[in-house]
Amino acid sequence: MISRSEQKTLLNRTPRFEDMLCSLYAAPRMPGGVVKETKKVVAIARKFNVQVIRARTLELDKKMHEEPDYLAWDFVREANRWGFYSMWYPKQIGCKGYSFFSMPPFIEEIASACLGMANLIMVHYLGVTVLASSMNVRLIRRLFMDTIEGEKTDSPCIFSTAITEPGAGTDVEETELVDKGNITCYAQKVPGGYRVNGTKVFISNGHLATWHMLIAYSDLKKPSENMVVLAVKNGTKGFSFGKMEKKLGQKCCPASELIFNDCFIPDEYVCADMRMDMPKTGLSKKDLAASLLDDTLAASRCGVGAFGAGGARGAFETALKFAAKTKVKGRLLINHEWAQCILAEMYKNMLAARLAYMESNYANGVFGPMAVFQYKPVYYFSKYMPVRFFNLFENFFRKPVATKLLRRARLLAFKQENNQITAGLGSFCKFSATDLAVKNCHLALEMMGQAGLRHDKNAEKILRDSKLLQIYEGTNQLNRLNLFKCLIARDFPQTVVFDE
Ligand SMILES: Cc1cc2nc3c(=O)[nH]c(=O)nc-3n(C[C@H](O)[C@H](O)[C@H](O)COP(=O)(O)OP(=O)(O)OC[C@H]3O[C@@H](n4cnc5c(N)ncnc54)[C@H](O)[C@@H]3O)c2cc1C
User: Is 375 exposed, middle or buried (0-12, 13-18, 19+ CB in 10 A)?
Assistant: First the structure.
């Protein structure tokens, strides 16, 4: 009835089979162990919500309102004791080594209880993703060991990511825009390293982090081709903290200003420099920077989608609890048909948000840069091979050749169509899920009447917290444009995107 080649041609037509049914395509390719791990991390998150978050969330939000410069070290220490800052680090260096696939469901769970506290934990992994995307094996290992040491000594060592500048937010999130932006963070190449001058703003966890993954530029006239990723440690001469933003929501997670004033970063802390240490693979410097940024954002936007699902769920659960015990006109709210319709709508929004981030999660699992770790033979090999086997290669991983080989392999494996799916679905889930979170908050407030506005009822806090999700990790407008670029415009070569 249909030949193989005919089937292939038809399935490659828009919408391509993999784009349309990414989860169906991905699920059979994933190892079964991933399901077990995901169940485990979700259960851990539920336990943490019960034992730590639920009792503290409103109290901490109130404290932050009264004392905006307070740093939530107590909470960060608690998360550190639970091992959350290294939970997805590899088993080979003594960590749990959970699959990255299990991370978004964990995020949803924690975020459903408190978006601010979820960010206090998970934005660390944005830094981890930037570091991992640089594929600098020596530095990845070095900084991961610091987090592990921080867990052993009860002094958290977490990462922040510094991309946004006072005059450039959206522009630095997209390589097509960065050359038009007002970029000022300059990393000048000097003997033995870089000298950095400039300021970064709105950096989540800045004041709480030990290491900052800094994105700077070695030529401000053409930043898209001159991106440098540097790891900056607290205490480095010329680096200081500025103010903490007084913001609407997620108050417990500081948004910090980072100031670099003739700050010297030695070569050993250069994660990646697009001009100097990338293997020759035919990709331009701009394409290299774009692939690094896309790899990072495809993963982090999936995470923010999971935050969105958590926000949508938190609003739903708050409204449901209220409806189950509040009487209106002599009847429980939950028994009024109009309230049942609102609750069903909210449930749908929560479910749609989850499906959205899971689709992106599946895409990252089979097409993303970390897909190799979900490939069944690699997954089971790294799971069941004794750690001492990997120790044999410890010295090799410290050498620059390891980084070179890894980068070469990654860049040779780079495929534009895979990148379009992961980046496109990352943007799709980011704006879909976070819009649904805000929608659910509005529905909760509508149903709860004046009670919804009271701090102790939690709904207004979830709305304040959720609103921020529409802005960070690229505004939802930018993410709509990115979806257009990745998944729609590719079939129309005459289309111009990011040109205004
Ligand atoms: C709570 C919070 C935490 C954050 N954490 C971090 C962090 O850890 N690290 C970090 O580096 N940054 C962080 N940010 C910064 C965040 O990434 C930026 O706020 C975001 O990228 C938007 O930039 P902007 O605020 O400068 O808005 P602008 O870029 O000034 O945009 C303003 C408006 O114009 C629209 N717009 C701008 N350019 C375009 C365009 N080309 N096409 C269409 N619309 C456009 C935007 O969509 C928006 O509606 C955080 C922000 C917040 C609020």
Answer: middle
| Closest ligand 1 atom to Cα of 172 | 21
Q: How far is CA 494 from the centre of its chain?
A: 32
- Is the CB of 132 within 6 Å of ligand 1? no
| Residue 422 near residue 294 (C-beta atoms within 8 A) | yes
Pairing between strand 159-162 and 211-217? parallel
CA distances (Å), 53 to each of 88, 197, 462, in order?
21, 39, 14
> What is the average per-residue pLDDT within 425-440?
98
Residue 278 pLDDT: 67
Residue nearest to atom 48 of ligand 1 (CA): 475
Could you tell me if 441 and 459 are in contact, meaning their C-beta atoms sit under 8 angstroms apart? yes
Domains and CATH numbers, the chain: 25-157 (1.10.540.10), 160-273 (2.40.110.10), 284-491 (1.20.140.10)
The Cα 403–Cα 268 span in angstroms is 13
The gap between the terminal CA atoms of the chain, to the nearest Å, is: 48
Please work out whether the CB of residue 471 comes within 6 Å of at least one atom of ligand 1. Answer: yes
Integer angstrom CA distances of residue 282 from 12, 91, 279: 26, 34, 9
> pTM of the full predicted structure?
0.96
How many angstroms separate the alpha carbon of residue 171 from the centre of ligand 1?
Answer: 8
pLDDT of residue 459: 98
408 CA distance to ligand 1 centroid (A)?
32
Describe the crossing of helices 285-325 and 103-113 by its angle, rounded to 10 degrees: 40
Q: How confident is the model at residue 94 (pLDDT cuts 50, 70, 90)?
A: confident
Question: Which of 163, 478, 497 has most ligand 1 atoms within 8 Å of CB, for mutation?
Answer: 478
- Owner of token pair 């049942």: 340
